[in-house]
Amino acid sequence: MSTLTIDPVERLLDAAENGKSLIINREILHFTYIPNTILHRNEEQEKVTQSLLPILKQSRPSNLLIYGKPGTGKTLVVRKVLLKIQERVEKSNFPIRLIYTNSKEETTLYGLLVSFGRQLGLSEKDLPTTGLAISEVFKRLLKVITKEQINAIFVIDEIDYLAHLVSKTGKDILYQLTRANERLQKGSLTLVGISNDLTFKERLDPRVISSLGEEEIVFPNYTVEQIREILEDRISMAFMDGVLEKSALNLCAAMAGREHGDARRAIDLLRVAGEIAEREQTLSINEEHIRAAAQKIEENKEVVTLQSYPLHEKLLVIAVMKTSGLSTGEIYTSYKNVCKMTRQKELTQRRITQMLSDIELSGIITGRIIHQGIHGRTKKFKLAISPEIIKETFKNEIIFQDII
Ligand SMILES: Nc1ncnc2c1ncn2[C@@H]1O[C@H](COP(=O)(O)OP(=O)(O)OP(=O)(O)O)[C@@H](O)[C@H]1O
Ligand SMILES: [Mg+2]
Q: Relative to the CA of 16, which of 178, 248, 285, 351 has its CA 20 to 30 Å away?
């Protein structure tokens, strides 16, 4: 039979049935998977456990702040410790509540506190999802803790997102939250904050820092060698024996360790490389697959960022793409032009200048300060990603069709 007559769908289904799959268990490479052994994190597991240990003796642990670069195992370790304490609690019937929230998912302080309340057992009636003043939400939380004499540990993961978002009153609540324990006659509240932004402290109110950081634990970066061992552990469960070439493993560890040892990036690379290799129906995963995976992940990040922008941010990115000028003034002219072509009302130059800085922060454009002698200084911007990605991402939005 000539290859032309083989149906492409049949071919893939055949391959899957014949067991030519490289990946045995995809879930093991998913970010929510909790591995049995957490390598190279014994000391951190001990420190976190030590710090929270008083809760089992019905006394209040200190507030705790955990730092470390992305992918250094902070969430993993904290979740495991909570899980283990929870197992003991269930056996003993202590009035202990371990509550985990992530401020990236709960994007307002109100949402975060409501999520906290729900996990304390407050219903919609006791604590409506909208409409109360923050201080009232806070009062109700403290009330239930006192009434039921609960010892609560409240973990706020990615707490830096919260610090970005909170308003003036919000900041005050964050402070009150860290000091809540002093207001409780019965029960207790311990706050655990996790952050991967090492500069986050500088942006917080010093009062919040001093009470949140009663204790601090820093997660160091993994070395390339440690990343490799973490990967080997996963590989043995996730892939068929021997399908990952040794050189590919080394490259993967090296790439993930290039900036700092990021275990998440390493595992992501591996998963995507495995998928690419499967699609190509090769028998093993090699260095090329790892490189292709890195590129795919990078592009994906940019696409997601672009898609998440509000309209005028998108217009502005297109304006930067279309202009050959680099100064804020030239970009603003181009932006006005783009607005005209899409029949949008333009924003002021001041707003646009601010917006350029925000877009720069997310890495889509880069800015450079140029000193101009007696004329002072000016900032020049250019695209940091390929125009093709912008065109590809926006081409299906009708409003942009005539301009890209
Ligand atoms: N020591 C380890 N052993 C096995 N897997 C690990 C280890 N450290 C991290 N991982 C895995 O790497 C990924 C990232 O870890 P984790 O989510 O804990 O990072 P993090 O420090 O919370 O990062 P971020 O600050 O970005 O939230 C997860 O899939 C986790 O299971
Ligand atoms: Mg995390």
A: 248
